[in-house]
Amino acid sequence: MTQLFKPFVSEAAIAASAEVLRSGWIGLGPRTARFEREFAAYIGCRHAVAVNSATSALHLAAVVSGIGPGDEVLTTPMTFLSTNAAILYQGAVPVFVDIEPDTLNLDLAQAAALVSPRTKAIMVVHYGGNPLDEERLYAFATRHGLAVIEDAAHACGATFRGRRIGAFGTTCFSFHAVKNLPLGDGGMVTTDDDALCARLQRLRWMGIDRSTFDRNAGAYQWEYDVDELGYKYHMNDIAAAIGCAHLPELDAWNRRRAGFVAIYREVLGDLPRERLAFLATTPGAESAHHLCVVLVADRDRLSGLLKERGIGVGVHYKPNHHYPPFRRFVRAPLPACEAAYARQMSLPLHLHLDEAEVRTVATTLRELIAS
User: Fold this and answer.
1) For 223, which of 80, 235, 316, 339 is 20 to 30 Å away at the CA?
2) Which of 6, 120, 179, 307 is catalytic?
């Protein structure tokens, strides 16, 4: 079976995690701090705060952005549930904006009509690893007085006009087992704001002002302060050690993913667009290529036939407003989202593939489309 996704862990990461396991300290500690420093340096921002999942990162970003009960947040329906669950966790209202049909990113041109006096923020997803236009995003947010939260779960290593995603504002990353930078699971919030960083560090550890590791330096100190309610969201040093080992490989891994996408485009790119179409890349952007999504006619039939031939494909995503917890938040038609959902298919894309296997997937799909 050619899998849609397959987790990758390097030998260096296995050795690094074993070293932590033998060290006597496996919780939030020095490896997490090191990973935060190295990740911030890679992104080109002042601070990175490590947590146990991208969902936790998104929730904390919503908290520190001041999103609360009754506030409205402009957001995309074309995403994993975590994006909009973070809004609901705060008692706020997700306001779904339709997507660009060629990128499946949130359509900023349609967002202005949905701004109201209660709109507090805009939350965007860099779909598939392809960034939105950051200049347009932040100009839009400034014009309407909105906070910005970037969901970069797909976009670790992606750039816009030469700057890495995560360097522009409050941005959340995923280190899930099948993401571009896999740790098993984990997340990160990046920011240039010193005070926001300090608050994130407290909130991820129950609001406590000093970590257990810091209080264990020298003679154990049991006393600490808690000024606001926090969450049990911190990363541990086992995951962080994997992150430190994998981060230097990320750019090379993303280039490998881009090479596989190039093969798919080479084999399938000349088909009629009504039969198969690739997504566009935002001008000025370099995608991280977390997903290779194509829009195909007769998606369900093709996916079934591919499965019969030992090729796994997926759909990213069933729009959030199709699920009961989100259904009541639709305020305007979402035709581009519905059209994309009917046609989208994610092709296998992971580091265990080789060029021959990718070419076999592509040629098999081409033959099935022609049949």
Assistant:
1) 235
2) 179
